[in-house]
Amino acid sequence: MLPTLSRSGNRWLSILLLLSGVATGLAGGLCVQAHTPPPAPPADPDNAEQVTLGQQVYASFCSGCHGGNLEGQPNWRQRLPMGNFPAPPHDETGHTWHHADQWLFESIKYGGKYHAPPRYRSAMPAYQEMLSDAEIWVVWDPTRMPRSILLKLV
């Protein structure tokens, strides 16, 4: 005859299994974060191949909202009926230059909601499934703004 666990033994076994599951879940989350690739190094504005790629990426993914001449959408400082703002310009009249490089890179990669306050509805889509880190950097490299690659894009 097999021995049976008492009720308190079952309770401790349940707690132990629950804690084991939580620890495994946390470790799994840490592994996912640890395997996130770092951003690509900034693009070279003197590299004609990268400039051409940046032009193609901007024309395909950015110009529809931010404008073919970096002008952004009209009245970009005024909230829309949904509470969000129109796409800002990416020339010297916009606010893009006020943000850190990594912040802008993440906003392109993960979408406007990534850094937005709670409940803010950003219209900026996430491009992580469509663009590589290198493609994001060739279209957006704030170390060269506004006079290099973006001016070469239009």
Structure in words:
The protein has 154 residues and is mostly helical. The protein has two domains: 1-36; 48-153, Cytochrome Bc1 Complex, Chain D, domain 2 (Orthogonal Bundle). Helices cover 45% and strands 0% of the residues. It has helices at residues 7-34, 48-66, 101-110, 133-139, 149-153. Helix 2 crosses helix 4. It is globular, with a radius of gyration of 23 Å. Residues 26-35 and 142-149 have low confidence and may be disordered.
List keywords for this structure.
154 residues, mainly alpha, Cytochrome Bc1 Complex, Chain D, domain 2, 2 domains, globular
Total number of beta strands: 0
- Class based on secondary structure composition and strand pairing: mainly alpha
Binned, the helix content reads 40-55%
The general outline is globular
The overall pLDDT, averaged over residues, is 74
CATH homologous superfamily classification of the largest domain: Cytochrome c-like domain
Return the domain count. 2
Layout of SSEs?
Elements: H1 7-34, H2 48-66, H3 101-110, H4 133-139, H5 149-153
Helix pairs in contact: 2-4
